[in-house]
Amino acid sequence: MPDSALGTDLNPNKTVGLKLPIGRDKLNDFSLTKTSLEQAEFNLKTLLQTYIGERPMQPTFGSRLRELCFEQQTAELPGKIEEEIRRAVSEWLDYIKIQEVETLTEEGDLNQIFVQIKYNTILNSDTMSEITLNATGAY
Fold it and tell me: Which of 11, 42, 91, 94 is most buried as measured by Cβ atoms within 10 A of its Cβ?
């Protein structure tokens, strides 16, 4: 019988998945995630930074986040960004529950848009997590 997600999270000898970008760690050929919450973060980043149509065998996987960054910056743009994030997550990562999406720009640089996402998972609903992505795809 498979372990529960909580059982896996509490077992220091178990891993959940791969960290992205793929790289080595001290013990393994690939860096690994140890908890479902850590894996959820990598899954969320991957989903939102993948263009729709980019992934072979799953042409609808991804989001239009980077595409939206080329639209005019109007009062409606943050709403469009939030709607796209919620759409993609509900379709592909329904175990992640988005609590808040905030669109940010750096003062003096309107060419970069950052998205701050606060979320939790159904596996760990008491813990709120947060990521900030450069929506334009720049690193």
Answer: 42
SS (H, E, C) the chain: CCCCHHHHHHCCCCCCEECCCCCCCCCCCCCEECCHHHHHHHHHHHHHCCECCCCCCCCCCCECHHHHCCCCCCCCHHHHHHHHHHHHHHHHCCCEEEEEEEEEEECCEEEEEEEEEEEEECCEEEEEEEEEEECCCCC
Whole-number Å distance between alpha carbons of 116 and 128: 13
Q: Is 5 or 12 the better-scoring residue by pLDDT? A: 12
Within 13 Å and on the Cβ side, how many CA atoms surround 93?
26
Spell out the residues 6+ positions from residue 135 whose beta carbon is closer than 8 angstroms to its own: 65, 66, 68, 69, 81, 103, 113, 114, 115
pLDDT tens across 93-102, in order? 999 999 999 9
Please tell me the pTM assigned to this model.
0.81
CA–CA separation, 104 and 131 (whole Å): 13
